[in-house]
Structures are given as structure tokens and as C-alpha cells.
Amino acid sequence: MSGVYRDHAPVRATDPETGDRRPPAASPPVPLIVLEPEGSARGGIVVLHEARELADALLEFMKSLTGDGWIVVAPDLFHRGATTGDKVFGADLFVDFDASFDWLIRRGVFPDCVGVLGFDSAGTAALLVATDRPIGAAVSVAAPGIAEPLTDQATALIHAAPRLQAPWLGLYGAADSATPLEEVECLRDAAARAPVATLVVTYPGLHHRADEPGLDAHADNEHTAVDARTRIFDWFDSHLR
Asked: In whole angstroms, what is the distance from residue 176 CA to residue 209 CA?
């Protein structure tokens, strides 16, 4: 089914870490927004995001990924009643990712052709998923929590990055106060110790995200937006095979 629609992904009946069965009342299905391409899909991308509803810019970006042949699924990480301002990490994050991953597998996507993409704190989540799940590639944009964890359920990225199991791309603004450049450089070094391909890109003068034009008056928006989007597409093209 091509186009944009909503679906629900059942949660795994057992905890993959402990093997314990999950009680049905504690395992509601995960609401998804799904975008499917025309014709056969090349693979799937799980887009983690920070709000109950998708921003127009993010939805357009997801449509562009679909236009490149990917099935895109965006799980509602707040379906348990958390508010938009909350950050979803820990067991709940992995339960929701696993449900989205399994949904894609049931659609015929091979595990190594599943990627994960996140922006801001959801980019932090994307890196953490890539340290603990057998996926094909991960991309984080402006992911904070580099030197200090965002919550007690997250790990500081400089400690998580050496454990990456999937090729990871990180995109950062060099002037972003939420992700100081010296911390980004430490993250670059930490990621280089992972046994997979990693790349950290910084954009001089950019105060925040490089993927959306018009957000930062201190940077060459058009150039950085085009470059960032190209790198995201190329990363998935190279590693989801």
C-alpha cells in the first residue's frame, strides 16, 4: 500500500533481554505513521521524533525518503501518556523500536536493510538504538547528551558511541550551545573506536540543525541543508544493502 497512513505495531510478547513474557496490559500496540513508496521498497527507516504529531518539515523529509524507495515508519513514542516535553529512553524506547522493526520485517524488509533516524533528543535515541540492535545504519542530527546523559535512562553519547553496532552518521552545528564543539570532537573520537563505520560532520557557524533551511540566520542555510540531506540519503544508500 503506497502513500501515508496510520497503523499499529504489536509489541513483542517477550522481553529480548530477559526472555520474560510481557503482560498484555503493559504492552499496548505502538501507533505508527507509515509512508510507503510506489512499487517495491529498498528497505525501511524508523524515524524517531519528539512530538505526538509530525511537524510539516519532518513529514516532507519523510516523503522525500519514501520517494527514494524506503518504507518509513514513525512510532509515537508518547503513546503511554508521556507529554511532548518528555524524553523517551530506556526500556520504553527499545520496546517501541522493536515493534517498529518487527512491523518492517513483516513487510518483507531484511534486518540489515532497516535504518534509524532521529533529530535532537530523538537523534540521541537513534544512536543508543544503534548500540543495542542489529540494524543496518543510523543517523543522528543535532543529538545532545554527549558528555552528560539527558536522563537517568540514557547513556552519555561519548560512552555509548564505542559500542555502536551499526554504521552511524552524526550531523552537528559547530555553534550549537546544546552540543558544544569540544564535546562533538570528543564524540568523534569515541565513535572512531566503534567496530563499524562512523562519521561526524560539523557545519561552521551553524547554531543548530543543518537539515532544515531557514532555521539559522548565522549559517549558509541553503548550502548546509542540501549538504546535510545529501549525506543522510547517501549514508542510507551506502549501508542499507
From this structure: 8
